[in-house]
Specification:
single chain, mainly alpha, 78% helix, 0% strand
Length: 224
């Protein structure tokens, strides 16, 4: 490797370390003292940088505190890409989420220290929840592109990828909310299975209702 290539790589590693240090400081301060009792200046001081450096990496203390969750959407999407091509898209999404939960190296939320606490706080703090919503939306946009590729369609023209991801991500969100409100940090996997089972049941009911409506319409048309 040439010296010219080593310099940008060192800068990149240093930038990554600085971002991670700021995110960890924000994470710990928000959980220890509460979001409203923490300032950006205090986060920067805890990370041993100045306020201007903080602003180069994060737009707000909320974004810094939640930065550790951003990679989870990437991990789920990586698992979704790896699912076998013949799997129906919604089943692939479900199994990708379960793959993420079961992978000890991925450190899903129920395995990672204090993430349960962070999501409890996010449920209570509107500004924190809003940032969490944006993180989810970013991940879902990537999921839509992956599902569209699996189906061989253009998601701008075909609504199925967006509907699939909205359904799957909605089930995951419902599971996360039930997990946080249930007060059992180890219960996330069972809440996810419960949510996706409920989604499958609802989808089956919708298919049955659609078939019944189609049959009724056909009978009506056939009546003289």
């Amino acid at each position: 490797m040439t010296p010219e290539r080593k310099i940008p790589e060192r800068r990149s590693r240093k930038a990554r370390r600085t971002r991670d240090t700021l995110a960890q400081a924000a994470f710990e301060l928000v959980l220890d003292r509460g979001l409203r009792n923490v300032t950006v200046e205090e986060i920067a001081e805890a990370a041993d940088v100045d306020r201007r450096t903080f602003s180069r990496y994060f737009p707000s203390k909320e974004a810094a505190a939640l930065d550790s969750l951003r990679g989870d959407g990437d991990r789920i999407n990586a698992a979704l890409r790896a699912r076998p091509a013949p799997e129906p898209p919604l089943l692939a999404y479900r199994r990708a989420v379960l793959d993420w939960l079961a992978d000890p190296e991925a450190e899903a939320w129920h395995r990672r220290p204090r993430i349960f606490e962070l999501l409890v706080v996010a449920e209570e703090e509107p500004t924190l929840y809003a940032v969490f919503h944006h993180i989810r939306v970013d991940a879902q946009e990537d999921s839509i592109a992956i599902v569209a590729d699996r189906l061989g369609v253009d998601s701008r023209q075909d609504i199925r990828p967006a509907v699939t991801v909205a359904a799957g991500a909605g089930a995951l969100l419902a599971a996360q909310a039930a997990w946080v409100r249930g007060g059992r940090p180890d219960a996330l996997p069972e809440r996810v299975v419960e949510a996706f089972d409920a989604l499958a049941e609802t989808a089956e009911e919708a298919r049955a209702a659609g078939a019944e409506a189609t049959e009724e319409a056909a009978e009506t048309e056939a009546t003289p």
